[in-house]
Design a protein that fits this description.
It is a single chain. The termini are far apart. This protein has one domain. Helix 4 runs antiparallel to helix 9. The protein is mainly α.
């Protein structure tokens, strides 16, 4: 016969029955940097598979625009504007247009619900996707800039500034694209807004500012990519004004911070609906 008291057996049974009522502690929320890295790698792998044909389209489009403008623009500051604007247009096509479509589709298909269930900070989702799409534009932007320099006889000496222009312009445009996609009530409207944003980058970024009407020049100052275009265009001169280049890059960085903050707020807003 067992020597265990009956009261102990009853108490153990009661604890076993009551155990399921105790909620298990939730897992800790993922830290920002590891979550951002994971989202970036996942989005970059996805973009490599699905977006390579579109990157070729963006590059060929920009090169084609420069070829057409070669018959109109001979050289000087106008050639600088055409090459710089066409190069940044590749970033606008991918980071603004395609990212707006991606987040619009993600919201329309309920994909945001999947991200909302993961212990990932909202900023990591937005920043990871934006960084992946922006970095995906690097080959096309470099090819466009090199071809443009060859077409217009511009020096290749300072093309290293693309190492700053691409991420800063990409951050500003990707934040804008993500915000448009997340705030649009329907995926079709997100696609339309992304196309309109890319068209604005084409019209206001590639065409020389001196040939624009006054009101378009003011509109050009409101476009995030303008400052990346200006920074790159200034480096094609024989004696670049590096102070002005740094100022343009600083404005581009500030706009990028604001646009990514707005995109993060839009993600939180869309995820809880």
């Amino acid at each position: 016969m067992s020597a265990v008291p009956l009261e102990a057996v009853v108490r153990a049974e009661d604890e076993r029955v009551a155990a399921p009522d105790v909620a298990a502690p939730l897992g800790a929320r993922a830290r920002m940097v590891p979550a951002l890295t994971a989202v970036y790698r996942a989005q970059l792998s996805r973009a490599r598979v699905a977006r390579i044909p579109l990157l070729f389209v963006a590059t060929f489009q920009s090169v084609g625009i420069m070829i057409l403008m070669r018959g109109v623009v001979d050289g000087g500051s106008e050639a600088h504007a055409v090459v710089a604007g066409s190069s940044v247009l590749v970033v606008a096509f991918v980071a603004l247009n395609l990212l707006a479509q991606y987040f619009g589709q993600l919201r329309g298909d309920g994909g945001l619900d999947h991200y909302a269930t993961l212990p990932v900070p909202p900023a990591a989702v937005v920043l990871g996707a934006a960084a992946a799409y922006a970095s995906f534009t690097v080959p096309g932007t470099i090819v466009t800039a090199v071809v443009g320099c060859g077409l217009f006889g511009l020096p290749l000496t300072h093309l290293w500034v693309l190492a700053a222009v691409i991420p800063l312009s990409g951050a500003a445009l990707a934040g804008l694209g993500a915000a448009l996609g997340l705030l649009a009530p329907r995926p079709e409207l997100a696609t339309l807004l992304g196309q309109m944003g890319m068209s604005a980058a084409l019209l206001l970024g590639v065409l020389p500012a001196e040939r624009m009407p006054g009101f378009l020049q003011y509109a050009r100052d409101l476009l995030p990519s303008t400052y990346g275009v200006e920074a790159l265009a200034r480096t094609f001169g024989s004696d670049p004004d590096w102070g002005a280049v740094l100022l343009d890059l600083g404005v581009c960085a500030a706009v990028g911070v604001v646009s990514l903050a707005v995109a993060t707020w839009a993600y939180r807003r869309a995820a809880v609906r």
